[in-house]
Amino acid sequence: MSDAPLVAVVEDEDALRETLTFALRREGYRVATYPDGQSAWDAFSRDLPDLAILDILMPRLDGLELCRRLRGESLALPIVFLTSKDEEFDRVLGLELGADDYLCKPFSMRELMARVKVLFRRVALSKVEADDEEDRLDVGPLVLDLRRYRALWRGNPLSLTVTEFRILHALARHPGHVKSRDQLLTEGYPHDRYVSDRTIDTHIKRVRKKIGAVDEEFDAIETVYGLGYRYREPTS
Known about the structure:
The protein is built from 8 helices and 12 strands. The chain is an alpha/beta fold. Helix 6 packs across helix 8. The chain has 2 domains: 6-127, Response regulator (Rossmann fold, 3-Layer(aba) Sandwich); 133-231, Orthogonal Bundle (Arc Repressor Mutant, subunit A). 42% of the residues lie in helices and 22% in strands. The protein has helices spanning 14-26, 37-44, 63-73, 88-97, 109-132, 162-172, 181-188, 199-212; strands at residues 6-10, 30-34, 51-55, 79-84, 101-105, 136-139, 142-145, 150-153, 156-158, 178-180, 221-224, 228-231. The model has no long low-confidence stretch (mean pLDDT 85). Strand 6 and strand 7 form a beta hairpin.
């Protein structure tokens, strides 16, 4: 049990926090719980969990800010948001800040456990793929560190989520080739995906925005209407 992944649950509702703890431990995970964002951050500053489940609306430090801080510490840490159905803006902002998935309350514990397993499989698969490939991919001004999940554009670090990194890697490793949304979805969500292929459009938009923030002339990801997307290696 001591080698089991550690899941952090940051939730201010006592009953839900206890239910989540019971369900996760039943699946064999170690669990650390926190009633607010600040107490969680105090602990995370010392040692990061293997996966974090965050409520958005919390006292002292909300889930969005906690997510932002966590992404500053690790780009590969899987993060799941718990959100109310009427918090669409917050869900979108949460994904932009780097969350990998979200569930709307109320939700079934079975679905949450399935998604947690998917995220852990993605992490394990990513490590295996990194072992099987070169440590680094250089495509013009783009550099991808496949072991640490770090990306650079013209020497500037990019704060990509795991999914965004995988999608960018899928495009950049075959410059000039068109990748359909379904192909990119398989790359970004290799196991038991729960999202539609249109989610890829959102991920592509965020990748463009993040690279555009450090290079206003970035245009290497092309939309091929009716087919998907293509990475075009810049000429300069």
